[in-house]
Amino acid sequence: MSTYTELLKSPQWISLRDRHRARTKSTCEDCGAKEIPVDIHHRVYGRRLKPWDYPDDNFVVVCHPCHRTREEIADMARTIFQVLDPATAHKFLSRLLHSKGALADTCGRMTKNMEVGV
Questions:
Q1: Run of H or E including 2
Q2: Which residues contact 7 (CB under 8 A, 6 or more apart)?
Q3: pTM attached to this predicted model
Q4: Are 106 and 74 in contact (CB under 8 A)?
Q5: Confidence of residue 99 (pLDDT cuts 50, 70, 90)
Q6: What is the mean pLDDT of residues 74-98?
Q7: How many domains does the chain have?
Q8: Helices 64-83 and 86-96 sit at what angle, rounded to 10 degrees?
Q9: Largest Cα–Cα separation, the chain
């Protein structure tokens, strides 16, 4: 079995990564930063899927600081769903959706997928 890091070295991932970088001209889709290193972020992870086995709209091109922010928000959302009942967690996270960018995108998708048990 390959590790996640090994999978990110595969031709399938490299092709997908390069395609998304080209789509955005390596511009961060959250803050608009240009000419800096960018990552390809999975908005939502599915069980038992390879990193490239997602629809194109599941990927966002982000700079390293924005990627960290998205990961921190996702971690917080997971914690909220662990400590609150689903209805309360959904209500709480929905209030955060008034913000733009990573917060709204990550929390919105996290909320929707946590409800259906993805």
A1: none
A2: 13, 50, 51
A3: 0.70
A4: yes
A5: low
A6: 79
A7: 1
A8: 150
A9: 43
64-72: list long-range contacts, CB under 8 Å, 24+ apart. 64/36, 64/37, 64/38, 64/39, 65/31, 66/28, 66/30, 66/31, 66/33, 66/101, 66/102, 67/39, 67/41, 69/30, 69/102, 70/30, 70/41, 70/102, 70/105, 70/106
Q: Is the pLDDT of residue 13 over 90?
A: yes
Task: Report the alpha-carbon angle 33-55-85, nearest 5.
Answer: 85
pLDDT surpasses 60 at 16:
yes
How far apart (Å, rounded) are the C-alpha atoms in residues 63 and 37? 6
How many CB atoms are closer than 10 A to CB 5? 7
- Residue 76 domain boundaries: 4-116
